[in-house]
């Protein structure tokens, strides 16, 4: 990277992402798109093809990897949309995995189900529950890879015409190779890459100044997956201020009506058929099931995780010291159940959905006021990220996967300054680590850890080199040190998280070993190891300790990154 | 960032290898009673852990009896011991047969990765340092060479997909080559014996390595040469003795040594197994060897043909005038390919042995050069020749991914004919044939009379490429020898000291070798620069 005059013949002989990222552009041709309006003419350079081909090959290798129930969820949706008429899509309960995504995603599944039926009819058989043949695995995994092309194309578009194409290239590569997508989409199984591709497309359109298209795409996205509503306030304020109003604050009726109509059309296309059939209430009840607890089974590392942990610690102290305090009986029972079930606090006052809603709304308002004052693209990016971040921090029943809502827009902010980059580093490290518990089989844990280390090295190192700023004051030196310590702590945490179950297996193994030696000693009948005994010890308290440690440690980092980002954003001119 | 490239490359290669192992393994997964190669390896861990050494080669031979040399057995024992710490059930004697729990699978995969990382990875890393030293400035190119060898698709698919430990054998051989390049012949001989002691297939290299060492002894003259020879003989035999010690007196009766030996060299098996892309299997389509000749005659015939096949390698290396290390990769290729094509009882997986020198040559060849085209072609055809096996294993996706990834990484463009070289036209024809065969196999079911039709077509398509490669390696060896020999004669008598320098890979003969397009280098400019300095660098 020291010299832009790299010998091309050698570079041809094989490049890897880490080299490609640093490749200097050869001239203006490389930066300026020849035909920026054409989406089909992508002009990918050899190095960009390298990233794409190598990462796709790796994803192919992940086909046989562990897949969660989400795989069966999506297979079931293929079957529902293929075998049932539209009117029954949101009513079918053949499988427990009912359709609970908005209509565009259902249409998307319908589209996917057509080739599926040709490949293997049993894929779209409604009653063929938990179908796991190679045909369905290969097909569904392939659709994830193909759908993710949207993300790759948009990431490429972002590089063209960027203020700093070199930095943007690293950021784009970081998005395409993001371990979050690898873990959640290509192993766990979901279509996030595809939908974040649409989100980024919408953001890209905002960057290009085409706010109408941006609004349209976001409306489309909302009808694919409603979780993106977390981001809607930022979109609303931004489009209202920068598109529907003049800089002086006067309403531009033409623009306003245009935007409103376009968004309306999208919703009509999506929901129209169901409204006509009078199924809207049923559809909404599927989309928004308000019957869940504050925390997910594994606490997503947000503010509530810290509060819950504090409650556990307080309860422990109360029990130890014997202080007379009104304890919530069901809360005490809740702690002994580990992580399963609804969270009820034992010491602290309980949190209700309305509380989380209010906290979220209030904090979002702060950022939105700032956005409405400075409705620029950069400010929009910050507000968008913070909107998602606030919802993640204080939302009701947040999934750990929702952290992608924060990490993806935050990536775009990373090259702005060292402060943003540092926030991005901490949030990414904690966010990606918090996704690790999604996979719990040893083979896949190794894959996710390796991928994340590789990704972090390939993205953080070159960005850090370009953006690094010396800490200037004593507090910033201390902060810098603490943050580095925190990041280094993840290594220790991973070792601990892996060692605890291994320790348990060791104890179980030793017990079995004594049985085995007895067997060789010449006994004719070998006592079979008692299965009940093993499962009992595996379900012991140690089982959820690693999860709790992960959750709390990541929550510390994510809360800190949230405060950091809010501070940077609000102080920004 | 530069400092981070190498760790990233290594980490990336480990990731790819591990991801390859997520899939299924040897055809036998979930198929009692014998399961597959995976079960064989696991079974050896089981018996070595539980039985006294003397019984290792005699215990229940019908169920995957141990038939690799002792180093494999010792390594199996170690893996078995460590694995038993995790879960003794994985290796319980007899009761663990066919065990395929997720835990045991992960452990077995981890042993392959660990051994590969301990032996093969350092060997390849050293190779790029020792054999490409003139490119120290261009770490990027060296990293490309590194990744070319590390991600070689055939080895990845067999070791991490199908399940075997070939990289250990190949790694020891490569370590031996590195030692030879550094003039540490004794250490090299030691490593080569370890390679032989891990898998007897390393014998395929023995003619080349043996004649290289003997050629060097002759070349050094009566005094130094004899000294080296005696030392080599001593190191080699002591290493062998140590490896076989438990089966030798005084630890065992004299006849005990026959147990391992008869297991390691099984002449009671067929001429070839399944479908393998070698001379016997390919010609068997028209000429039914087994109907015409009996086993004894066939053994002799195959031995004779094999000897003829590797003779050129022996001749070029051991004529005693110029035992040039640079010829060694070609000689290794000639010799191992001759074994693959003509010897008795060859498996399709054995193509990995010729592929090692091929890939080493590839890692040093300039893109778009003749050697590059040849080596890339052979590598791809070799993977294709194992397709029937991989298909049986259920490794179709891995097959596709490994090929695409590797070809992209090395920057190979098979469908671009530039110089109009023979090999480029050949490649085009071959690739079109292979693609057609794949498409045909997908679309048309084989006729009931010939269920193995596609496997047979595969053999017929692959064998000619292997034969041509064998001839090409002989040609390259001869040309390089001529180039160097001519130089040696030009340098005149009395330059013995100077000529010993040809023993190390980067030497004065380089320009000539490069001129014939066979060099072990990447770019002409580097060589020209180095060529002027080469004389000063004597060993």
From TrEMBL, chain A:
Involved pathway(s): Protein modification; protein glycosylation
EC number: 2.4.1.-
Protein location: Endoplasmic reticulum membrane
GO function terms (MF aspect): dolichyl pyrophosphate Glc1Man9GlcNAc2 alpha-1,3-glucosyltransferase activity
Annotated TM spans: 191-207, 227-244, 256-276, 380-399, 419-440, 445-465, 485-503, 542-563
Topology in the lipid bilayer: Multi-pass membrane protein
Family, per entry: Belongs to the ALG6/ALG8 glucosyltransferase family.
Protein name in UniProt: Alpha-1,3-glucosyltransferase
From TrEMBL, chain B:
GO molecular function list: dolichyl pyrophosphate Man9GlcNAc2 alpha-1,3-glucosyltransferase activity
Name this polypeptide is given: Alpha-1,3-glucosyltransferase
Enzyme type, top EC level: transferase
Transmembrane as UniProt keyword: yes
Location, primary (coarse class): endoplasmic reticulum
EC number, as in UniProt: 2.4.1.-
InterPro entries: Glyco_trans_ALG6/ALG8 (IPR004856)
Pathway membership, UniProt: Protein modification; protein glycosylation
Similarity-based family: Belongs to the ALG6/ALG8 glucosyltransferase family.
PANTHER family according to UniProt: DOLICHYL GLYCOSYLTRANSFERASE, DOLICHYL PYROPHOSPHATE MAN9GLCNAC2 ALPHA-1,3-GLUCOSYLTRANSFERASE
Keywords from the UniProt entry: Endoplasmic reticulum, Glycosyltransferase, Membrane, Signal, Transferase, Transmembrane, Transmembrane helix
A Gene Ontology cellular-component term: endoplasmic reticulum membrane
Compartmental location: Endoplasmic reticulum membrane
Signal peptide as annotated in the record: 1-21
Source organism, top-level taxon: Eukaryota
Membrane topology: Multi-pass membrane protein
TM region positions: 106-128, 140-158, 228-248, 297-315, 327-344, 422-441, 453-472
């Amino acid at each position: 990277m020291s010299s832009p005059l790299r010998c091309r013949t050698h570079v041809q002989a094989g490049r890897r992402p880490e080299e490609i990222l640093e490749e200097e552009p050869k001239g203006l041709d490389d930066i300026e798109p020849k035909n920026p309006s054409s989406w089909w003419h992508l002009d990918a350079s050899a190095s960009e093809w390298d990233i794409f081909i190598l990462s796709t090959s790796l994803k192919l290798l992940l086909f046989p990897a562990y897949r969660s129930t989400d795989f069966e969820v999506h297979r079931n949706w293929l079957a529902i949309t293929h075998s049932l008429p539209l009117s029954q899509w949101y009513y079918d309960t053949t499988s427990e995995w009912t359709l609970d995504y908005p209509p565009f995603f259902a249409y998307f599944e319908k589209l996917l189900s057509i080739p599926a039926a040709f490949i293997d009819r049993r894929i779209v058989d409604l009653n063929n529950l938990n179908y796991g043949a190679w045909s369905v695995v290969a097909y569904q995994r392939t659709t994830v890879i193909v759908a993710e092309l949207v993300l790759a194309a948009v990431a490429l578009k972002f590089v063209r015409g960027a203020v700093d194409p070199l930095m943007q290239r690293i950021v784009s590569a970081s998005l395409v190779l993001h371990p979050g997508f690898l873990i959640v989409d290509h192993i766990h199984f979901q279509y996030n890459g595809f939908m974040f591709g649409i989100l980024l497309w919408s953001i890209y359109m905002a960057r290009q100044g085409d706010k109408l298209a941006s609004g349209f795409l976001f409306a489309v996205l909302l009808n694919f997956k409603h979780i993106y509503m977390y981001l809607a306030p930022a979109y609303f304020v931004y489009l209202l201020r920068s598109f529907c109003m003049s800089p002086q604050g006067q309403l531009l009726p033409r623009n306003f009506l245009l935007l409103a109509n376009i968004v309306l059309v999208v919703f009509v296309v999506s929901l129209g058929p169901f409204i006509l059939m009078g199924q809207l209430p049923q559809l909404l009840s599927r989309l928004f099931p308000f019957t869940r607890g504050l925390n997910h089974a594994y606490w997503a590392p947000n503010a509530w995780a810290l509060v819950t942990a504090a409650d556990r610690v307080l309860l422990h102290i109360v029990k130890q010291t014997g202080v007379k305090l009104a304890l919530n009986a069901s809360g005490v029972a809740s702690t002994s159940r580990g992580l399963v079930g609804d969270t009820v606090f034992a010491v602290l006052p309980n949190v209700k959905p309305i509380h989380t809603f209010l906290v979220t709304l209030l904090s979002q308002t702060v950022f939105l006021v700032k956005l409405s004052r400075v409705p620029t693209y950069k400010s929009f990016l910050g507000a968008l990220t913070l909107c998602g971040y606030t919802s993640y921090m204080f939302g009701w029943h947040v999934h750990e996967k929702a952290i992608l809502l924060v990490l993806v827009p935050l990536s775009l902010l990373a090259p702005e300054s060292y402060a943003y980059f540092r926030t991005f580093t901490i949030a990414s490290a904690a966010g990606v680590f918090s996704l690790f518990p999604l996979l719990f089989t040893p083979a896949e844990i190794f894959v996710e850890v390796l991928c994340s280390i590789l990704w972090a090295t390939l993205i953080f190192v070159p960005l850090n080199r370009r953006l690094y700023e010396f800490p200037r004051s004593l507090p910033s030196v201390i902060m810098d040190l603490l943050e580095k310590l925190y990041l280094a702590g993840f290594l220790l945490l991973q070792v601990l998280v892996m060692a605890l179950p291994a320790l348990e297996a060791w104890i179980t193994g030793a017990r079995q070993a004594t049985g085995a030696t007895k067997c060789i000693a010449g006994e004719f009948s070998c006592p079979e190891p008692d299965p009940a005994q093993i499962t009992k010890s595996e379900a012991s308290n140690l089982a959820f300790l690693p999860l709790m440690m992960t959750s709390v440690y990541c929550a510390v980092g994510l809360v800190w990154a949230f405060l950091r980002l809010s501070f940077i954003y609000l102080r920004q001119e | 960032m530069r400092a981070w490239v190498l760790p990233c490359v290594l980490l990336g290669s480990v990731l790819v290898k591990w991801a390859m192992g997520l899939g299924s393994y040897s055809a036998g997964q979930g198929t009692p009673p014998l399961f597959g190669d995976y079960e064989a390896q696991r079974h050896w861990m089981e018996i070595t852990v539980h039985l006294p050494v003397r019984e290792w080669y005699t215990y229940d031979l019908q169920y995957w009896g141990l038939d690799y040399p002792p180093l494999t057995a010792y390594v199996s024992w170690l893996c078995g011991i460590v694995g038993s710490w995790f879960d003794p059930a994985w290796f319980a004697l007899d009761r663990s047969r066919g065990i395929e729990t997720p835990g045991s699978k992960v452990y077995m995969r981890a042993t392959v990765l660990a051994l590969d990382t301990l032996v093969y990875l350092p060997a390849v890393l050293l190779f790029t340092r020792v054999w490409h030293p003139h490119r120290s400035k261009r770490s990027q190119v060296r990293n490309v060479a590194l990744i070319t060898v590390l991600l070689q698709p055939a080895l990845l698919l067999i070791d991490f997909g199908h399940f075997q430990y070939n990289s250990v054998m190949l790694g020891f051989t490569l370590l031996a080559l590195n030692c030879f390049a550094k003039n540490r012949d004794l250490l090299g001989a030691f490593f080569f014996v370890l390679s032989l002691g891990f898998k007897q297939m390393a014998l395929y290299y023995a003619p080349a390595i043996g004649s290289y060492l003997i050629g060097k002894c002759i070349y050094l003259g009566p005094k130094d040469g004899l000294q080296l020879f005696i030392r080599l003989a001593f190191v080699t035999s002591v290493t062998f003795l140590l490896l076989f010690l438990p089966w030798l007196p005084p630890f065992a009766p004299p006849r005990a040594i026959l147990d391992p030996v008869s297991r390691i060299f099984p002449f009671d098996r067929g001429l070839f197994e399944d479908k393998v892309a070698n001379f016997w299997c390919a010609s068997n389509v028209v000429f039914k060897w087994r109907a015409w000749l009996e086993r004894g005659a066939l053994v002799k015939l195959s031995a004779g043909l094999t000897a003829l096949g590797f003779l050129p390698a022996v001749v070029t290396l051991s004529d005693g005038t110029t035992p040039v290390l640079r010829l060694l990769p070609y000689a290794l290729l000639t010799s191992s390919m001759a074994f693959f094509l003509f010897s008795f009882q060859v498996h399709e997986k054995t193509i990995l042995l010729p592929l090692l020198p091929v890939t080493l040559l590839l890692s040093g060849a300039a893109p778009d050069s003749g050697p590059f085209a040849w080596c890339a072609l052979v590598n791809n055809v070799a993977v294709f020749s194992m397709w029937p096996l991989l298909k049986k294993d259920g490794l179709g996706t891995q097959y596709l991914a490994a090929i695409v990834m590797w070809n992209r990484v090395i920057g190979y463009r098979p469908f671009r004919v530039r110089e109009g070289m023979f090999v480029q036209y050949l490649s085009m024809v071959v690739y079109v044939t292979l693609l057609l065969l794949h498409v045909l196999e997908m679309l048309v079911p084989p006729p009931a009379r010939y269920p193995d039709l596609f496997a047979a077509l595969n053999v017929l398509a692959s064998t000619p490429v292997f034969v041509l490669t064998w001839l090409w390696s002989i040609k390259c060896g001869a040309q390089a020898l001529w180039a160097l020999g001519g130089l040696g004669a030009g340098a005149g008598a009395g330059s013995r000291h100077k000529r010993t320098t040809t023993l190390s890979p980067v030497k004065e003969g380089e320009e000539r070798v490069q001129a014939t397009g066979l060099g072990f280098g990447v770019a002409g400019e580097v060589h020209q620069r180095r060529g002027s300095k080469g004389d000063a660098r004597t060993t």
